[in-house]
TrEMBL record, chain A:
Keywords: Gas vesicle. InterPro entries: GvpL/GvpF (IPR009430). PANTHER family: PROTEIN GVPL 2. Pfam families: GvpL_GvpF. It comes from Streptomyces wuyuanensis. One of its GO terms (biological process) is gas vesicle organization. This is Gas vesicle synthesis protein GvpL/GvpF. It is found in: Gas vesicle. One of its GO terms (cellular component) is gas vesicle.
Automatic annotation (TrEMBL), chain B:
The gene is gvpA. The gas vesicle shell is 2 nm thick and consists of a single layer of this protein. It forms helical ribs nearly perpendicular to the long axis of the vesicle. This is Gas vesicle protein A. Its main location: other. It is found in: Gas vesicle shell.
Length: 237, 157
């Protein structure tokens, strides 16, 4: 029977998972496969598993439960091995690497920050700052300009939006970098212009959070900061 | 550290499915990968997430930005001396609540469906919603009211 694999932890991890269930409907009971100094948290893999909210949440909750008691290497959602022996082999094959990584992540958590800016405020700012954009905008609004003027306006504005967001994003990351051990930016989606994860050590957590809040306050009402954490260190395994 | 063993599961302080949405990319795209293991099919969800990304350098985006600029009520701007300006302003005010602008849209649809009920067919529903969303993409007017500009996912103690 195929097994779904959630996480790798050190053998000494207390693995308090009694009240927890895994993916699937009904949820599969969790168990561990150990080898050497490592343990993998697994469950039987349900047939036809898909990334449904219930299963994503189950995967995530196992990680958060485990990280409360020690370092954890969270696996990406949806990985299955043919059987327990295959899990054991996988642990053995990279035992040193996994153990080192667990050591490095001890006492650390991931914080993911996404930032967006109110679009209207940004466009207003751009039109205020750029006489050229204002001119094009007036021409379009006056109804005398052809579609090429709209296109020129849009291109100019899009370029400005990009440039401003890039510089704001860099500023936010720089402000928080000193209070983190590592950073990983990813492609922001939707309206966000920044999506970045920080690996934050326990002793720096307070400063990190205070700085994040102060940066958010400084940037003002037109910005929305969404900070999620402490999270399992998905981005730093 | 406190971990709540149900609901948001300590995903974020103040958890819930909206934070699950915010950490979705981490759960699906990050995390340790073991080469010899097999991964379940994530087809539906990956398509959604690719669609949700903005392509800034495209004609469609340019036109939407231009339209969003045209709709702005520029205070301190030109006084409406022409009839077209006056008409423009009226239309704009009337549409204010529904104008969500160029950057909105796809991702909200995904967020909304993530916040919805957890049914068997949620992926299918999402795909359908996404389809509906995609058609009027160029001239999208959302009817949602503006959300609070700043929502903190975590609660300060």
């Amino acid at each position: 029977m195929a097994v779904y694999v959630y996480s790798i932890v050190g053998k000494e991890h207390p693995l308090r998972l009694d009240d927890f269930a895994g993916v699937g409907d009904p949820p599969s009971p969790l168990r561990t496969v150990t080898s050497g100094s490592l343990a993998a948290v697994v469950s039987d893999a349900p047939e036809g598993l898909r990334p449904k909210r219930r299963d994503l949440t189950a995967h995530q909750e196992v990680q958060t439960r485990l990280m409360a008691d020690g370092a954890v290497l969270p696996l990406r959602f949806g990985l299955t091995a043919p059987d327990d022996d295959a899990v054991r082999e996988a642990l053995d094959e990279r035992a040193t690497e996994y153990a080192d990584r667990l050591g490095a992540l001890e006492g650390c958590a991931e914080y993911n920050l996404k930032v967006k800016q109110d679009e209207e405020a940004l466009l207003r700012q751009i039109l205020e700052d750029s006489p050229e954009a204002r001119e094009l905008n007036d021409a379009v609004r006056g109804g005398t300009a052809g579609p090429d003027v709209s296109l020129a306006l849009g291109e100019l504005v899009a370029g400005e939006v990009d440039a401003r967001h890039a510089s704001l994003a860099a500023g936010v990351v720089e402000a928080l970098r000193p209070f983190s051990r590592d950073q990983q930016t990813s492609q922001p989606s939707g309206e966000d212009f920044l999506s970045v994860s920080f690996l934050v050590a326990e002793e720096q957590e307070e400063l990190f959070l205070a700085t994040e809040m102060s940066v958010a306050n400084q940037m003002g009402e037109d910005f929305e900061f969404r900070l999620n954490g402490p999270l399992p260190p998905y981005s730093f395994v | 550290m406190t971990v709540v063993p149900q609901g948001g599961g300590g995903v974020a302080r103040g958890g819930g499915s909206s934070s699950l949405y915010d950490v979705l990319e981490l759960i699906l795209d990050r995390g340790l990968v073991i080469d010899v293991f097999v991964r379940v099919s994530l087809v539906g969800i990956e398509i959604l997430r690719i669609d949700a990304r903005i392509v800034v350098a495209s004609v469609d985006t340019y036109l939407r930005f231009a339209e969003a600029c045209n709709r702005l009520d520029l205070e301190g701007g030109k006084q409406p001396s022409q009839l077209t300006d006056l008409v423009g302003d009226t239309v704009e005010k009337g549409a204010h609540g529904k104008s969500k602008g160029a950057l909105s849209g796809a991702v909200e649809a995904v967020t909304d469906s993530m916040k919805g009920g957890g049914d068997e067919d949620e992926e299918e529903e999402r795909e359908e919603e996404e389809q509906e969303e995609r058609e009027p993409a160029a001239r999208r007017r959302r009817t949602t009211s503006r959300r609070p500009r700043r929502s903190r996912e975590r609660e300060e103690e």
